Amino acid sequence: MFHLRSLILGTCAAALMAGGAAAKSDITVAMQLEPPHLDPTSAAAGAIDSVLYSNVFEGLTRFMGDGSVVPGLAKSWEISEDGLTYLFHLQDNVTFHDGTTMDANDVKFSLDRINAQDSANAQKALFSAISEVNVIDPTTVEIKLSAPNGNMLFNLAWGDAVIVAPESISNIKQLPIGTGAFKFTSWTQGDNIMIEKNPNYWGAPAALDMATFKFISDPTAAFASVMAEDVDVFVGFPAPENLPQFDADPRFQVLVGSTEGETILAMNNKQAPFDNVQVREAVAHAINRQAIIDGAMFGYGTPIGTHFAPHNPAYVDETAISAFDPEKSKALLAEAGFPDGFETTLDLPPPSYARRGGEIIAAQLADVGIKAKINNVEWAQWLETVFKGKNFGLTIVSHTEPMDIGVYANPDYYFQYNNPDFQALMTKLNATTDEDMRTQMLGEAQHIISQDYVNGYLFQLAALGVAKAGVQGLWTNAPTQATDLTGVSWAE
Prior knowledge:
This protein has 492 residues and is of the alpha+beta class. It has helices spanning 46-52, 104-114, 152-155, 219-227, 243-247, 277-286, 289-297, 326-335, 352-366, 379-388, 420-430, 435-451; strands at residues 26-31, 61-63, 69-71, 74-79, 85-90, 130-137, 140-145, 182-188, 192-197, 210-215, 233-235, 252-267, 302-303, 342-348, 370-376, 394-399, 456-468, 471-472, 489-490.
């Protein structure tokens, strides 16, 4: 999901060789969130992809920094006229980091594992149309679908669909073995993860020899670490108020881009009183989006009124439907039987947008009579109690997966929205390949969830990063939650 998934980099000690000619070959990337474990195929935590996507693990297709989907472990493919059969031709001479060969059997294992009955894959629904995976020969895989899916190549680029080996799956959460340009070295929990260049990589080799991902959750400590040049890159920088200071300092470069992160005030649609659409509408009208963007994000972020990225061509601006109107909010609460408001809980995971934004939202809700008790929770606890346990009233989270409006078709998803009409629309969308028709249906989908006030839609999360001036090749935008180091280097 999710964040539900952030960007980062850094360097260890100065690596200028005697004579000063050689460019640095190691980097230290700081990020706010530490992964709960290291298997991107069995968790919703975006922090896993932030470290491992493209670096250690690869899929049949992959996202580039501009959001395009390009060949990954599949070098080419053919799609049948009826859209039900995909034939993938794999790259040659690919090995896993343990030296074993990556072939069609591993692809079949990985995709079958997603749809297995006991699967813990957070995006299992994206691949439900896969009816069978057949090994044609070691470098050719056939995927058959039960219905056409216009998003299949896009979905296969997600971190949830990376290719893993049956031989290493039992220990993947602690020892990730992939096919990428970097291989996992070590994980010092609470501090850092280290990866090193894969000398046997099948594709273009990485320029960096070593990368360290350092986890710094506190915004004040984040600022100090960058200023002291202890880290080379801080992806998803958590203190936006400091960015002008870095921008004015020639030692640094500030990267401001867009993410796929719809930041929402999620409501438990199955739990009273949020099972009442009037109550959800009241919550939506109590929220002043711009005040949250200004107060929590220092102006970085784009207001949204539905679960869709504003930079997407199919985006529809629905912010007027849930415009800030506290008097209307109070009237709706009275009509719903809560003239004096009510009490609920507000679970806040660690990111600054949640902790800082949550304080502002709690005050806005209090102004209309809703008393939201703040619970600050760590990510592991959030994933267990909110995402899996669905034990919450309100929570704030940024959904950083690309084009993930389809999660609203899953009534078992953590905010538990159950609308058969929306589910039917998503089924129709998945079977449609005509772009104009898809755009029309995506607009309709955005409108439905906006009018149902499923969640409080706040803002599109900005991609904010700080790097030393000599770092080049970082993604500015975040089309998926990743810190892709495969094209990163130091200026000579």
